[in-house]
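Posting this for the archive.
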Amino acid sequence: MLNQVYQLVKPKQISIRYEELSTNQAGKVLVKPNYLAICHADQRYYQGRRDPEILKKKMPMAPIHEACGIVVADPSGTYTVGQTVAMIPNQPPCESDEIFYENYREGTYFLSSGFDGFMQEVVSLPLDRIVPYYNVPNEIASLSEFTSVAVHAINRFDQIAHSVREDILIVADGSLAFLVANVLHFLFPDSRITVVGRNPEKLSLFNFVHATYLTNELPENLKFDHAFECAGGQGSEPAINHIIDRIKPQGTIILMGVSDYKVAINTRDVLEKGLTIVGSSRSGRADFITAVEILGDKKIQDRLRYIISVEEPVRSVEDIHRIFAKDLITPFKTVFKWEC
């Protein structure tokens, strides 16, 4: 079959590449993307907000790594035609084992980061790179990859952090912080979760956690057992140092926000308090399995609807430009039906 791949060839320039795609590839399943979501990383590539050398290295490529789809062909019979599935962008040389996670293995590559992502008519994926979902609205299922990132970080926290988990801090009030707060609340319902951010309107959506504070209004006497940094960008440095100041001795800090620049942190207090700092990025199949289970929860679905802006379907290159422009003024996540 003839497949259409919508590639970003230069910032704000989309070109359609046509390729012949076999419907009978051993060990592969063909999936038609259904609902897609835009990530900050996609937007940075589209706008050209990365180092020119990085952009030159990564492009051309089809953007988008957050998507759900519909199975259109599976020669192995593992999946049925018409089955709805979450699509995994991480492509490792092998799966996770008892020591190493698949998303950190050498040789792993990631779709929409130098390799064609899900903005295609049909995507060919290895059999283990999709996870079926049930009783999850498609627009919510499009956040499965995003949710899996939160699951992965919290799984690492669970394995590393000490057992005192009464008070947990999340710094930032954006989409990532909202997902982490939801998953953390779901998996650790007895922990008191506090979210610190800079936007009162965004913080008002965190009405399911123990407490929320503006950054400059956090009481001086409040200390926390562990913390998640979800700020990223220019906010990474103040967020990390704010956590170091407020975390109790031997606490664990999970770093999740991406910064393109090196940041300076207060290592003196890191050493004096005996803190553990863990970097967490992307996710693997096991995280996706947990993510789609969590997305099946009705309360989670209702909360996530507050942060998704479902736009008009995308049917053309012009629509792709429209959706990326609209995402710039969307406070949280832009989701759209893919009909190209």
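The first helix runs from residue 40 to 47. DSSP finds eleven helices and 17 strands in the chain.
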